[in-house]
Structure formats: structure tokens, C-alpha cells
């Protein structure tokens, strides 16, 4: 018998209305052209459920019986690598014919989902015991102890390797269009080996290892880069060095070299790369490098160095955030950031950093802004790695925030004059009537007292005025500004 068309909701409601009016089922059927049995079914449904809407239906009966469900669940629990085809064959031998899709849907309802197996280090019982011992020994270590550790590692980055995944928007059958593909070659098209170190305060040095590394080369890398990195990161006294149990690291000569240099070494369990937080840093670097798409080994090395220099100095950023939150600061000018690039990105805790730098080893300026004011930014002017400015409109007021970093006392006069020229250029570009705040490190002292300079400074300067600070005072007079931190 063919399936009949479902009655509309209006027709079903009319049936109920006519029934309540006292008409019989036959009369209602004749009036609306509906079978008497259908009228009776709708009236019974209304009397039972007080509605004529469609109720939830049980659907088709399950193809897999409860007994079959227990069987396949038990099978995959014992052996998670069992394939859907194996389960289909098991059920077919038991007299139930199903598809692979039915297997997937059934197991998904049981909370079981087919996933790619995670790759983890091969652990023997001795490795498990060592890792457990390490965890128990350091379980209660305070956070300050881990902040005083320098982590190190080596990694290989391939030119066309699988350094990161990439998703594209494409139409059906367009998967092989050049713009929707990632080129690959055998063995990654060449690679470079890198060594680096980092701590909670930020990344240390990144070095390319150009030859096959042996113990002597490893000790040379440490002698040239480990201590300078510790100094640059401003590690506390008694900092600890971490490296894994590679034979080059555990060789007697290397251990003796570390002992003579009085370096404390963190005892590390074998087969434990997943415990080293530097792996997260390597992943971030590889993703950034892959996005730049280097075309040769030389470009690959240059991009690695550039992207490494852009990685934020975590400790420095955290100190900014703590300061801004404690002192309720919404805008902070920062100097000597030493980040290469011209970007803006969120740094956490509801703040965004606008920065500019051309050298990862010196200079660099930036402005940290509370994210609620980011939409108020009208213009960002990056003049040099010593001067940049932001223009904001806050409650109808135009505010210009200038971040500056003056050359130090020992720098060439030409470099100092260039800084003041750039600062003059920024100030002259600001229309009259707009407010200006300069947050800068002028690398000098205005001196105590304010005799003769009362219009631009207070009495609370420090030390004796030097040439650099005389330039600051003269600049303030010329621009009709004030040296604010001398008033309190």
C-alpha cells in the first residue's frame, strides 16, 4: 500500500475543533475529505497527548542487536586498532549484515571515535620507572625553580617538510589546483639542523649546526652561546641547565666540561622529549617558517633566524602585564624590545602590543595598549626602531602617544642627532590642538632642582644634569611640554 500524504497542521486542528463541536468521526471525515480511521487516530492522539503535532519517533530498528553491540565494543576495547572491516566481518559471521558507516555510528553512540594514533616515545619499563622517579622528585618544586631553568635542544627543519598543516577554501574537484596544494619533494628538499635554548624569561640564542654534530662541536656551541644566553635572559644566580641524554650530551668529556664550568645540570630521564617545553617553541617556529614558504636552504636559514627573533620574550612581556595590572595602566610605552618586525599582536591579559624593530640584538620600541582602546587607534606611525607613535580618539579627544628610545651616552653624535630629528618630525606632524604624551627612555639625567626651568620641570630630578638631559629640557621648552616624572 502506497504511503499517503501527511495531513497539514491546520487540517488536524480542524478535526479537533469539529470533534469538540459535537460532530461524529464520519461527519468530520466527509466534510474534510479524510478517512474515518485517520480522524479517529488524530482525535485519540489529541485526547492522550493534548497535541496534534508529530511526536518523536523511534525510527528504524537498530541493525545491530544488544548482543552484537557488546561484542564489537568488547573487541575494540581489547584491540583499539581493529578496523571497521574486521568488525563488519565479525558481525556477518554472527548473522548480521551491516555497513562500515553503521559500525562508525554505533560506536560513536558508545563514546568511541576513530582517531589517529598519537606518536609517543618508545618506553621500556626502565624508562617508565625513570620518568616516574623524575615526576615524584619534582612534583612539589615551586614555580620559581622552573623559571630558573635554561632548556635546550636540537631540531631539524625541512625546506618542504610537513612543518605545519594548512587549510584552504576550495570548491569540489579543485583539490589539485596549485593554489590549493603544498609542494613536497623527496626527503623534504633539504634541511638544516638548529640548536637553541630558552627559559621562562624568553628565547636565548638560535644557532645553525652546519656539520654533523659530535661531542667537540656540541661543547663549542655551549661555550659560545649558553653563557651569553643566560646573561641576556638575566638568569638568577644558580640557574640550572637542561639537555637530554643524547650520547654527545652524556659523553664523559661533555660532563667534565660542564663540571669545570660549574654549570648545574638537570638530571633528565631518557626517552622524554615530550617533557621538554622547548618542543612547543620548536612547533611555533616551524609553523611560522612554513607560512613564509622559503624556496632554498639559504632563505630557510634566514627566515628561521628572523622568526626566532620575533618570538616574544615571555618574561619581559609578563613583567609589563604585571606592572600594568598592578598600577592600573591602560597605555604603556616600552623600549629596547629587541624584536624584529613591524606588527601588532595580543600579549594576553587583555593587552595588545604595537612594536617596531629592525635588529633582534638592539633597540626596538613599542606601545602596549589595553584591548578596549584598540578600536580607537586611528593611525600607527613607525618612524624607526627608536621612534614610533599611535594616534587614538578617546571620548572625542585626539591623543598621540609617542614611544622613544634615545641613543646611550657612548653612541655616535650622528645617531643622537638622527633620533632628535625623527622625534621632531613626529611632533611637527601632529596638528595643533591634539594632545601628546611622550613615553621615552632618554638615557640621561635632568639633575636636581629646576632653577630657570620651572615652566617645564619640577624639583625632583636626580643626579647632575648631563648633555643628553639638557637636550630633553630644551626640547620640552620648544614643544611647550613638561618632564612629568620630576613633579613627584
TrEMBL record:
Signal peptide: none annotated. Residues 71-140 form the Transposase Tc1-like domain. InterPro entries: Endo/exonu/phosph_ase_sf (IPR036691), Endo/exonuclease/phosphatase (IPR005135), Homeodomain-like_sf (IPR009057), HTH_SB (IPR057667), RNaseH_sf (IPR036397), Tc1-like_DDE_dom (IPR038717), Transpos_IS630-like (IPR047655), Transposase_5 (IPR052338). One of its GO terms (molecular function) is DNA binding. Residues 325-447 form the Endonuclease/exonuclease/phosphatase domain. Residues 149-300 form the Tc1-like transposase DDE domain. GO terms for biological process: DNA integration; DNA transposition. Residues 1-52 form the Sleeping Beauty transposase HTH domain. It holds the Pfam family Exo_endo_phos. SUPFAM superfamilies: DNase I-like, Homeodomain-like. This is Transposase. It comes from Hemibagrus guttatus. The lineage of its organism: Eukaryota, Metazoa, Chordata, Craniata, Vertebrata.
